[in-house]
Design goal:
homodimer, Chemotaxis protein chec, two-stranded antiparallel sheet, DNA-binding, repeat (chains A, B), transcription regulation (chains A, B), transcription (chains A, B), DNA-binding (chains A, B)
DNA sequence: TTATTGTTGTTGCACCACGAAACATGATGT
DNA sequence: ACATCATGTTTCGTGGTGCAACAACAATAA
């Protein structure tokens, strides 16, 4: 299970060096094989260890290609899904269409989200966090309701 | 199983060079033999490994030729279906009627969708994705409902 | 506390494979 | 016989991959 946000620089070839603390777990889980795709709600990428991704892929195959909504999901998720593999130095190459989608240039945030990672450009991440905090401090009703269960 | 989108240039003869990462799987699955037809819902082509296509063809032959809707399906799909075979350089020739249907000229997208590929002209693909994302970010009700099942 | 050594992470560089394009050869049909 | 179309070949440029040197950090001992 992955946690925490790390700032990382892409190298000149668009490769992302996975923080050392995650490398061992990733070799065990999935032999370094992962799948990266876009997040359809937010301007970021999602990075799944292969076994985690396969669960999602299985669900996607069961959708009907005749239903426009389901088809759209398949197009967005599968169409942008890309195999990535950690190289011998623990780096992985993000394909240029994906980099483009998330606006990745140099500085990015790798954010552990339990069974997956999110990849944000640093600017987008800062912006998102600022907005989330603002909503929170203004007292979003739905969020407050959910927090009742949490006793943080 | 095929995933991800790749940009490809048609050569002057209308041949499409299959990305190296798919070539091996295609020689194994179907000895490079595939069938290409039109997508009846979208301005793109569908490319099936021969064994996958045969499954579909079987279903189509079982439809009643008396029912006008089913008859139309047969006409559209079978009528446009075209055998393609990878040449020794991993390229395949797209017939000109099919190129015309999808508006393929030079730049195209080859999109892996598990058991098949979609072939889009680059413009059409970009347009489609932009629209899909827009629909998504405006909060399509039906899609949100489905996403509940996905825990992406 | 500081110096030395070892280990881990990062960056730059060089090689190789793949893809794009132009060209060459062979088949087909008018 | 020539034009046209399909298939094969070669060359060149770009981009992805691995390697190796260097920098940063941690550990140990003087």
């Amino acid at each position: 299970m992955f946690r925490g946000a790390t700032t990382i620089n892409l190298d000149s070839k668009g490769r992302l060096a996975i923080p050392a603390k995650y490398r061992h777990a990733l070799s065990i889980d999935c032999d370094g094989k992962m799948v990266c795709t876009i997040d359809i709600k937010q301007p970021c990428l999602l990075l799944y260890p292969l076994p985690e991704w396969q669960v999602i892929e299985k669900k996607l195959t069961q959708l009907s290609s005749m239903n426009p909504t389901e088809r759209r999901l398949q197009r967005l998720l599968l169409g942008h899904a890309d195999d990535c593999e950690m190289d011998k130095n623990g780096r992985l190459l993000i394909s240029s269409p994906l980099r483009l989608h998330a606006g990745l240039e140099k500085k990015l945030m790798l954010v552990g989200q339990l069974n997956k990672f999110e990849i944000w450009s640093e600017e987008a991440w800062q912006q998102q966090i600022a907005e989330d905090l603002k909503v929170e401090q203004e007292g979003d009703f739905e969020l407050n309701e959910r927090l009742e269960d949490f006793s943080l």
